Backbone:
């Protein structure tokens, strides 16, 4: 969020960061784009990858019903961020990208199309045709980064729920089937909330390490993500960012290790 930029700046400055190679915006919700203007003002940024805002939200970034005033305000904000990015960096649309290469590593992108617009205009599905049917999370990108052989998955705010429209049906599961590999480090989609990782999805990923940007206030021990992870990989190490940020690295052998962060959450709890 925009008011959290001082925390982001303190962290980056503490690492000695002088410039940023790129920013990848997974989708246009304010808890994801909020600090981009401040980052562009504070640091030289090589480029910003972003998908155009759909303007078709059924719900807001915080889950309440969206109205035209909200959608118009978000559209204005998107145009302002796009303009600012063009002035201070480079704005690169994600819709035609499949991969980002940097520092000798490949980051593969998934869900790059603006599926909300396609669904909205698809008359073969009357239940969603010209309907405000989804949150902008439906448009969220995901990314698979390979570092020294380690597989690191960033889930953005992906959905993983059944839907009558094929583009909205079990999105994370479809990506998991496309990847078809176990994951060394899994950033859980949408803060580990419901509807973001089905049991069959977790059975494909079987992640060894999981980061959930949330805390136990919103994730009781019987949360579905804990149940599904417990079934897929009982020895998975889960790290919650409620009280600390988390830093991982992958060594030359591809082993992912925790460099800084809390003790892993006890998956056997509950």
Residues:
């Amino acid at each position: 969020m925009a008011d959290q930029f001082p925390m982001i700046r303190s962290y980056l400055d503490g690492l000695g960061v002088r410039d940023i190679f790129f920013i990848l915006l997974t989708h246009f919700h304010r808890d994801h784009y909020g600090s981009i203007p401040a980052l562009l003002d504070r640091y030289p940024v090589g480029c910003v990858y972003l998908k155009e805002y759909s303007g078709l939200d059924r719900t807001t970034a915080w889950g309440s019903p969206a109205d035209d005033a909200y959608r118009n305000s978000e559209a204005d904000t998107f145009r302002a961020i796009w303009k600012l990015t063009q002035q201070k960096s480079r704005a690169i649309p994600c819709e035609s990208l499949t991969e980002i290469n940097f520092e000798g590593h490949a980051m593969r992108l998934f869900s790059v199309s603006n599926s909300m617009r396609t669904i909205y205009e698809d008359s073969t599905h009357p239940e969603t045709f010209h309907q405000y049917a989804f949150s902008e999370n439906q448009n969220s990108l995901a990314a698979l980064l390979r570092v020294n052989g380690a597989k690191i998955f960033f889930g953005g705010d992906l959905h993983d729920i059944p839907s009558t429209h094929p583009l909205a049906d079990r999105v994370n599961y479809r990506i998991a089937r496309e990847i078809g590999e176990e994951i060394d480090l899994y950033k859980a989609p949408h803060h580990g909330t419901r509807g973001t990782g089905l049991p069959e999805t977790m059975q494909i990923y079987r992640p060894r390490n999981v980061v959930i940007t949330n805390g136990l206030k919103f994730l009781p021990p019987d949360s579905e993500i804990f149940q599904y992870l417990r079934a897929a990989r009982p020895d998975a190490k889960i790290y919650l960012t409620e009280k600390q940020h988390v830093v991982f690295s992958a060594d030359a052998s591809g082993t992912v290790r925790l460099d800084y962060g809390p003790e892993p959450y006890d998956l056997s709890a509950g």
Q: What stands out?
A: The mean pLDDT is 94. The longest strand covers residues 45-50. Helices lie at 5-14, 30-33, 36-42, 68-88, 115-120, 171-179, 199-205, 224-232. Residues 96-261+264-268 form a domain with the Metallo-beta-lactamase; Chain A fold (CATH 3.60.15.10).
